[in-house]
Amino acid sequence: xxxxxxxRAAGLPVKTVRYYADIGLVEAxxxxxxxxxRYDEAAVRKLAFVRRARDFGFSIEECRxxxxxYEDKSRSSADVRAIAAAHLEEIEEKQRQLAALRxxxxxxxxxxxxxxRPDCPILDRLS
Amino acid sequence: xxxxxxxRAAGLPVKTVRYYADIGLVEAxxxxxxxxxRYDEAAVRKLAFVRRARDFGFSIEECRxxxxxYEDKSRSSADVRAIAAAHLEEIEEKQRQLAALRxxxxxxxxxxxxxxRPDCPILDRLS
DNA sequence: CCTTGACTCTCCAGCTACAGGAAAGATTAG
DNA sequence: CTAATCTTTCCTGTAGCTGGAGAGTCAAGG
Lengths: 127, 127
What we know:
The structure is a homodimer.
Chain A: H1 3-10, H2 14-22, E1 30-31, E2 37-38, H3 41-55, H4 60-71, H5 77-111, H6 121-126
Antiparallel strand pairs in A: 1-2
Chain A binds a DNA duplex through helix 2.
């Protein structure tokens, strides 16, 4: 399986697959004599795994850890849970910040008349 | 006022102030004979303005627009409101995505026993 | 007057997670 | 055989800074 088919199967751009190989996240298990990367089923599964983890907002480094746990048959679910729980914490913190931001901004937008006069509570608040 | 004092007054790192000058966002109004940037009150106010706008999550380009509106005495509040409203939309969209993500992840973390056995719904979901 | 320490300058590199493109070689369809 | 498609490596750029090197500047203390 060439990189193009592997990428399609995993739902990733070719560039990204090559990038993951470069950084040693998911390397092609083999090369053809002419240097083409050859991917097998297992590698494609790993790529898809990473894609989903990235969709969940896991960083590349977190993906690396999850991947090694994914491959480790003797892993404990506690290890995986720890990573996911930490990530959940980050997300919730981000949510809190975003909510505070939104509320303040929404308040400003409401307060601003939005006409052709220069009075603007938004700018007032920023200065 | 040297860059250090200006940065302190505006609540920004010196590096950032220099960066803003480099990209033409807020330039020092003057230089000493030996090349030191000299900031005045107005420039510091602009720096502080940008810092707050950045705290609100406005991009540098958005800051640039806001700044020019901030300086333009004949601006209309509608222009400012348009930028803020568009930004609010983005934030709300991000909030929706983050909420969906959080719910799914929280569900997985709850479902995972987190013991020393390898069964892990989190990994199952990712693969 | 000299030294020391704090400050500033420019330039260069690196961070995340890729994306875009160039130039060259490989493969496949017709 | 040719044209189109695919793949390779390498280089550059993105946003918004941050850190460091090496050199020059300034103010205070002895």
